[in-house]
Amino acid sequence: MMAELSDIVDKLENIVKFDTNGNLNNVNNVNELDKENNLIGIIVTGSRNTFCSGLDLSVAKDHILTPENGKKMSLLMQDTLFRFGQLPLISVAAVEGHALGGGAELVTACDFRCISETSKIRFVQVKMSVIPGWGGGKRLIDIVGGVNALKIMGTSDPITAQNGLELGFVDVIAPHGECVNRAREFLNRYVYFSERDERKGGNGNDDNINENKRINSVKAVRGLKLLISRTKNSEEYKNFLLYEHELFGSLWGQKENVDAVLKTRK
After folding, report:
1. 140 or 220: which carries more pLDDT confidence?
2. 8 Å CB contact between 94 and 114
3. What percent of the chain has pLDDT over 90?
4. Which contacts qualify for 194-198: CB closer than 8 Å, 24 or more apart?
5. Which 3 state secondary structure label does DSSP give 18?
6. Tens digit of pLDDT for each residue in 3-19?
7. Residue 247 and residue 94: Cα distance in Å, rounded?
8. What gap in Å lies between CA 96 and CA 107, rounded to an integer?
9. Residues whose CB falls within 8 Å of the CB of residue 55, separated by 6 or more in sequence, listed in order
């Protein structure tokens, strides 16, 4: 999953033709962008009623349950999700089922979150005797604040649709099975705007008002996302991610972590 996600981000970077510094890649005329594609948003969702259960613990035991490989995994996923967040695309996580551990970190990498009424998001890392290592700790703090982040990560209590909405973590609650549709409707708010056109009637009556939908400028929406994501491209932000990575690396693969993983697999 991790390598596949990195490949997907590579493809998205190529599609939008922006690098992570906000510069155009191999495009001489910015006006050519709109002619090539109108992509300004992306919906991240799972399959089989599960958003993402994070790291496959059987894979962890056999391949990466050592401090060295844990650090490599952390760097890969921090880089992947950082690059994902720097894309000039508005992202929505459509969470059906559960998002656990690394899956919860992936949810934080999206700009907005749509969760079904029955879904739950859990940061279970502390139960595995580690901390978030994919940048999710920093992102959760940014979303809900330090105190709430400590409660969520420290207790591993699930974030439900309702308490997530109250915390400002969840943006849209959807009926079960409708997350993707609701996420699409949510994204449309950034693609279209409505205009009341009174030119035909001229008297201001509702009978003479037409509701028109026009697509927003792709370049403007992308530029807005680049402006927002710039706040996460500072040295201070990157140093925080590095600190999170080092803390994660000091815990991953240690006896308590190994014992917790093996116990979970039984």
Report:
1. 140
2. yes
3. 58
4. none
5. strand
6. 788 999 999 888 886 54
7. 30
8. 12
9. 73, 101, 102
Sign for the pseudo-dihedral over CA of 55, 60, 64, 67: positive
Cβ-contact 27, 16 below 8 angstroms: no
Domains, the chain, ordered by start: 2-186+217-265 (3.90.226.10)
Residue 166 token pair: 């109250």
CA–CA gap between residue 24 and residue 238 (Å, rounded)? 22
Calculate helix-pair angle for 67-86, 235-251, nearest 10 degrees: 150
Phi, psi angles (nearest 5°) of residue 111: -70, -35
- Above 90 in pLDDT, residue 87? yes
* Identity of the residue numbered 249: G
Compute the average pLDDT of residues 29-55.
68
- Residue 96: phi and psi, rounded to 5, are -105, 135
Q: Which residues pair with 172 in a beta bridge?
A: 114
Averaged confidence pLDDT in the chain:
83
Cβ atoms of residues 52 and 99 within 8 Å: yes
Over residues 67-89, the mean pLDDT reads 94
Distance CA 96, CA 73 (A): 26
Residues 6+ apart with CB under 8 A from 53: 98, 99, 100, 101, 103
